[in-house]
Model the fold of this input.
Amino acid sequence: MKKQITLSLILLVVILSRITAQDKLYPNTFSLKDVELLDGPFKYACNLNVQNLLKYDTDRLLAPFLKEAGLTPKGEVFPNWVRLSGHVGGHYLSALAIHYAATGNPDCKKRMEYMLSELKRCQKANGNGYIGGVPDSKHLWEEVKKGNIKIVWKSWVPWYNLHKTFAGLRDAWLYGNSQEAKDMFLKLCDWGIDIISPLNEKQMEEMLSNEFGGMAEVYADAYQIMKNAQYLKAAKRFSHKWLLNSMAAGKDNLDNKHANTQVPKAVGYQRIAELTNDTTYTTAATFFWNRVVNHRSLSLGGNSRREHFPEKDDCISYAEEREGPETCNTYNMLKLTEGLFRMHPSASYSDFYERAVFNHILSSQHSEHGGYVYFTPARPCHYRVYSAPNSAMWCCVGTGMENHGKYGEFIYSHTTDSLFINLFIASKLNWKDKKVTLTQKTLFPDEENSQITINVKKPTRFTLLIRHPRWVSSSDMKVTHNGKNYAIGSSPSSYIKIDKIWKNGDVVNINTPMKVSIEEMPNVPNYISILRGPILLGAKTEKGNMKRFIANDSRMGHVAYGPLVPSFEAPFIIGNRDEIQDKLNNMQPIAGKPLSYTIPGLVQQEKYKDLIFEPFFRIHDSRYVIYWQSMSQKEFEYYQASKKEEEMQKLQIDRRTIDFVIAGEQQPEADHLMKNEKSRTGNLEKEAWREAKNGFFQYKLHTAGNEALSLMVRYWGRETGNRTFDILIDGKKLVTENIAKKWNKNAFVNVEYPIPTEMLKNKQYITVTFQSKNNNTAGKVAAVRLLK
Done:
């Protein structure tokens, strides 16, 4: 009997060892260990990312955690984005676990286990379950628990920061199968519940106006792990009702909102919906996805400019700003897409996922040194900068660390007896439950075919569901097996079903002819992008006059601050849509360079007539175009005559600018260490603004050592009432201003104030403060610039 029990226990351990944590949390998702990437751009990107990850100094990433736990750090805290210390460390733990699962690399596992051992020391030293690198953690969280919600605005998004630690511990269990990480994660969850338990719903809602990352998601995960109702309650408490209720009611209230603050909220809604079938959360998550994907995303799959969703009438700013779609946003949109697909498998989710992963995520990693991209400008003839290990500690470095290990996560998915082929990526699947091995051989997108080979030990029945992409017409799609075309009658953006008993060596051939198409910028029809199939085509332009491609460790190093090229000097396309499409249909392939073309007669300017159109994900270290200004000759002549002078004035200011902050926008203000009292924000005429009544607001601006500068402030031009205030430089008065009835026009105006040299001497930074007089209001201020 004793022997039987022992044998049973051994058998149970063997069975459990084959069930990875990833299978437990997402039952229809294959573990990364079961999907092997084969030769192609995604395997290359994943392997390159492992090399990049192993260049990071683990002890420096751990330093904030040890410091906050009262332990001696083994390395120096990274200076870049220091007020968010700890957030990249959490991402790094996730990335190590993900890449260990994807590649089996032992160094990733060794580093993951080392991080866990150090974080466990921190948790033990803290004594209450807490692990975090949030600066001044002890005081901050004590104040939050007391109900002092305003303190979260004096830190830099502390819940967002701490969420990365929650997620890192979860992922060390989810992908790395560490039971120790699971225990640490749950203790941290219990700590978090203790912090928010005293808060009433009004206090929670006020606190959730501050960016808090995926806190609802991780608590939903904790609930699924333990089936403990207190975790589900916490997940719902971290559901920002301002957005939840609007989305559930079918109301899009995203205009001018910080995009990556909102997307993780929707991810949380989806996870709660998945676990509870709550229709409010289901509707909110689905409506959010639809609005962002179908109304607010560019052709590469990314969204936002200057980190915010523009309003409909301001989408032209996508083509004007140097800060285009943020990589973090797409990282989270893919997570939301996967979750919604798990609930309701639909090809529309896979279509978006394919577009975003090929055109944005893959392109956000440098193909040689592996650096990560923050902003991808859509402005014609601008460029991107990349991170370097142990230097830039941006949020998109954190998500970038994870992105390139997750390529195997959505190629396939399954139900009990059905297997979905979602993406055409060279790979090998081990479907353990069915004892089926499937190999997908493809060079997509460089070729239009994929071949599926199925290996089974004995004949096995299951349904194969192959995506019919949105970009392939019904007549062109082919899925053949044993001489039969199963795609006959299929529609774009659906799944083609083959239900049969499969034999060893069965082969399915998939043909997905790609056509070239035009896609307009959302709400801006005179800017178009060009795609072949789902692949965004771009073109390199000039390489000169750029500051750098690899960012330094400066505060704003993630922005490509090189000069902007005037829009009327960028490549433009003359003609109507039919004329343009005819030229695209005659594109000429370049021998020896897959998916690369010249398009005779498309671009008018002589210096651009030989542009090469190629997949955007292959374009690095160059200015480029992905959106092309398109209009008739008459329209273009009018545009030049009416807009040229206005744009040159803007560019002249831009070229003089040393540093600037857009007042009232979350990220620019956080980047410039904004402080305020009795201040409020809003939007007017497509611009954000900030003002303070009987209070102040201030920003820290970089002088770059210049001692001959002026301060340019952008004000609303029709103010009334009491609008007298002081402008201070490092606490010393620069000027007293009164803008009441000063211009009397419904427009923003720029005012330039020379700064005395003594206020700038021997300084790299200055603090600019707008301080209202008694019973007066400072502002409205839309932007603050330091000009040469």
Remarks:
- The CA atoms of residues 38 and 427 lie 5 Å apart.
